[in-house]
Each structure stands twice: as C-alpha cells, then as structure tokens.
C-alpha cells in the first residue's frame, strides 16, 4: 500500500498494539495483498523497483539474488515476509535467529515462496532439518551482511555500494519508513549517466529521444486546448458545426437564450482539461521520461491509452468534429514514438532526506492528490456515460429551462451535438485523472519540483476555467459545482502541504 496509507496505520497500530505487534500487523496486511496476483502487481507498481540495475545483483550465503537488499525477520514473521517482500522490491528474506522449535514455522513459510529464503541459526539440529527446504544459511559473523535498523535511505544505499555487501533491514525500518523503502534505496544506488549533448541527436526525427516526442504531445495538447478556448470565446461555432446543425449561432440563441452559453460552458471546461493534460504530459516528458524514471513512461502510456480511444465516442454520438479528429491523428503517432522506445538510462539525482515533519505533511498532501484524482476519474466516467446516454443531468435542464424533447424538436442533431462535447469532456477528464493519480502515487519524492509544478499547472488549467465560465453564464447550482469546489480545496491543500517537500532546494538534477 502507498506510504500515505501505511504511515497513519503504522502510527495507530503502534499506539494500540505496541511496537512488535504493529510490525506483525503491517507485514500481514502487505502479505495478504501481495499473496494475490493482482495485489502483488499493485504493490510492485506502487513501491517495487521493477528495473534494478545488474550491478546490484549478487549472492548471499551462495544464493543468487537479483538485488542485494532484503529483510531479516524473526520466525514469527517469516511467512508474511515471504509473501510481502518480493513485490516491494526486496531480493531476499533472512529468518533469524532460528531454533529447533521454529523449524516447522520456517518450513511452512518456505513452502510457497517466490523470493530466496535464507536462515541464520546456531542450532545444528535446526540446520539439518531445514536444509532441504530453504535456499541457504547465513553466518551472523559475516562482515558482508549489513544489518540495518536506521530507515535512512542514503546510509543503506552507501552500504550496498560495496560489491559483495548485502543489506538486510529489520522490520522496524519498514514500519518507520514505509514499504517504499526498498525502491528508494535501489534508486539511490542506481548509477546515473550524463545526458547526451543535443548536437548528437541531430535533425533526423528517427534519432530523436522519446522524451522529445512526449514533449511534443504535451505542447500539442496545450496548444489544442488554448485553440479550443479561443474558438469558444470567439465564434463559438465553426463552419462544420453550423453545417452539421443546420443552424446559425443566432438561430440557436433564438431557440433558447441559454443554449449558446451552455455550449460555451461545456467547451471551455473541455479546453481547460486539454490544457491540464498538456501540462501533465509536458512535466512527465521533461521531468520524468528525460531523466529515465521508468514509472514516468508508464504514467504517460496509461493516461494516453485512455485518452486517445475516446475519439471513438463519435460512433455513439454520430458527430465527427474535424479539428478534434485532426488533432488526434497528428498527435497519436508522436505518442506511439514516445512510448515504444527503450527507456532512457537513469539520469536522476536523489535529494537528501529532509525533516520528518516535512515528510509527514507531504504524505498527507499525497493522499489528498490521489483521492482527488480518483474522484476526477469517477466523475469523468460518469460524464462519459451521461454524454453517451441521457446527455443532460437535471441541473442542466433546469438552467436551460427546457426539456430534452423540446431541444430535439428544435433540431434532431442538437442533442447529439451536445453529446459529443459532453462525452469528449468525460474522456479527457479520465485521461487527466489517471495521470494525476499515478504521478502522485509514483513520483512523490523530495526535491522533485517538476511534480509540484506539473500538478499545480494542471489544477489551475482544469479548475479555474470551470469556475469562471459557470460564474460568467450564471450557472451556479451548488450541487452541480460541489465536486469542483471540493476538488479545488483538496488539491490546494495537498499541494500546499507538499510544497516544501517537493520543492526542496537540494533537488535531483539531470547531468546535462
């Protein structure tokens, strides 16, 4: 589970259950999720380092491990650790100390393991009984095994730099630092390389790095959103809109004096969401993909995989907007070029750990941003469904002072025309929401100011036009606008709490 949920639960568990029981509770919760395939994938994507460098591989007690980083637990926690640690990014579980009385417990833990399991024991009888069931045995006097009780990422990363060293954390480290500790240590120990000089790229588009294409998509979305806003604030309808409706702007206004304003309100909110997506994609390109963060490419891919297919909403509405289609046709090949290439070599530099109160405030801010993004996704899904079915919600018809049947009588194409705008906005909102949730969940690191500014720009572009246009046309129904007000409050509070953490001066900078 994310650190922002783990930390409050850890504090509550420690207060109620005591330190030892709180460790067991935390590990069991992670184990119950990690023991299921979907849960393991969720944990791995949220916390596990999916791409540890080869230089961090090695062995412990003669047992090969993909990363020389693991956990040392007592026998009572062995089964839970075996289920929970592999998705988190650990390379090995050590059970210690083990006596003859613990043999059956360790044997059960080892039965269905997906991670190397080693044992430290001074009991020959226990070693003989467990030899067929575990991967190896460690020596408590081995200087290559570093036992860690301090949750400091920098110290653990420095220890694992030694070619033969194996770093084993005690359970209290995860309780104090959260389950993302393994990934953070791996990132801190990952070697980075300088960015290649731009002159080496040349003018051949086939040699352009992936982040250039991702940046072009972000800038293209921003430009398209600004263009849509300019059209909406100017002529409102273009020639193909008038041809499809068979009506002019004046005829629409004469049919219902709120109708033009309603169209503007739909299109301005859509334009703001497009600019928000552009801001998120630009940030992911420059701050994430360019610097080799594997998760940045995944955020970009998953968001676009939702956004681009919404063009097919026209199959249900019957209206194909030429500019919308042209924008998607131009940007989609760039999107593919950005995600199909091999991720860049790591170029990040991690900021040093800051004050604990700063980190805790940032965790609360992270929670608020993720909850807000999840709410936006649900809202986008609802808007898409409404746009493709009933089109209007009750507050819309109250504002218009009419009914759907009356609007259909004005023009049989009027409702499908509104449906296109409404459904398209829902699809764009879902795409931006996915980027917000995943960027907040995966990119929350001290000193990553680009995360703060990307989310801030997206929030400003998404929320402010919606508030302004509703005020300008006097569509001020509180129930209708309540989600916007809640989103603004949660996003603003979350960003304020996290600003010092994300914008710390000692930021990770790429070497240009």
UniProtKB/TrEMBL annotation:
It comes from the Bacteria. It comes from Streptomyces decoyicus. The chain crosses the membrane at residues 211-240, 268-287, 299-316, 322-339, 367-393, 423-444, 451-476, 482-502. This is Integral membrane protein. Keywords: Membrane, Transmembrane, Transmembrane helix.
């Amino acid at each position: 589970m994310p650190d922002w949920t783990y930390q409050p639960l850890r504090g509550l568990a420690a207060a109620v259950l005591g330190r030892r029981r709180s460790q067991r509770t935390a590990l069991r919760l992670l184990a119950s999720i990690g023991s299921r395939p979907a849960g393991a994938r969720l944990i791995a994507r949220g916390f596990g380092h999916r791409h540890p460098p080869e230089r961090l591989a090695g062995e412990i007690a003669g047992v090969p491990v993909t990363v020389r980083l693991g956990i040392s637990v007592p026998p009572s926690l062995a089964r839970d650790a075996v289920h929970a640690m592999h998705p988190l990014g650990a390379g090995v579980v050590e059970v210690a100390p083990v006596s003859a009385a613990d043999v059956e417990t360790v044997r059960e833990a080892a039965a269905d393991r997906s991670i190397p399991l080693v044992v430290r024991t001074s009991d020959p009888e226990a070693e003989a009984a467990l030899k067929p069931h575990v991967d190896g045995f460690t020596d408590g006097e081995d200087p290559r095994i570093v036992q860690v009780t301090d949750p400091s990422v920098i110290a653990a990363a420095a220890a694992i730099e030694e070619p033969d060293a194996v770093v084993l954390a005690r359970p209290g480290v995860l309780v104090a630092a959260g389950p993302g500790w393994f990934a953070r240590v791996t990132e801190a120990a990952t070697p980075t390389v300088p960015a290649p000089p731009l002159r080496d790229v040349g003018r051949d588009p086939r040699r352009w790095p992936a982040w250039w294409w991702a940046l072009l998509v972000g800038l293209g979305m921003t430009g398209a959103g600004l263009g849509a806003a300019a059209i909406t604030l100017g002529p409102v309808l273009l020639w193909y809109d008038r041809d499809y409706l068979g009506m002019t702007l004046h005829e629409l206004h004469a049919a219902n004096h709120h109708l033009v304003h309603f169209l503007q309100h739909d299109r301005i909110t859509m334009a703001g969401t497009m600019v928000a997506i552009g801001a998120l994609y630009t940030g992911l390109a420059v701050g994430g993909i360019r610097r080799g963060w594997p998760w940045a490419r995944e955020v970009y891919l998953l968001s676009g995989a939702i956004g681009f297919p919404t063009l097919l909403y026209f199959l249900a509405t019957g209206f194909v907007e030429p500019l919308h289609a042209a924008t998607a046709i131009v940007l989609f090949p760039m999107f593919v070029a950005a995600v199909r290439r091999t991720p860049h070599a790591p170029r990040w530099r991690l900021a040093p750990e800051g004050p604990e109160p700063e980190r805790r405030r940032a965790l609360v801010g992270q929670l608020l941003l993720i909850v807000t993004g999840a709410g936006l996704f649900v809202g986008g899904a609802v808007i898409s469904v409404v746009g493709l079915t009933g089109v209007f919600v009750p507050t819309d018809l109250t504002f218009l002072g009419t009914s759907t049947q009356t609007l259909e009588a004005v023009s049989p194409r009027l409702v499908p025309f509104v449906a296109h705008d409404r459904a398209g906005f829902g699809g764009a909102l879902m795409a931006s929401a996915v980027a917000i949730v995943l960027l907040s969940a995966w990119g929350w690191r001290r000193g990553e100011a680009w995360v703060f500014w990307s989310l801030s720009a997206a929030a400003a572009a998404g929320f402010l036009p919606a508030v302004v246009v509703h005020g300008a046309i006097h569509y001020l129904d509180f129930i209708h606008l309540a989600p916007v007000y809640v989103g603004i409050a949660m996003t603003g509070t979350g960003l304020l709490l996290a600003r010092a953490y994300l914008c710390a001066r000692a930021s990770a900078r790429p070497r240009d």
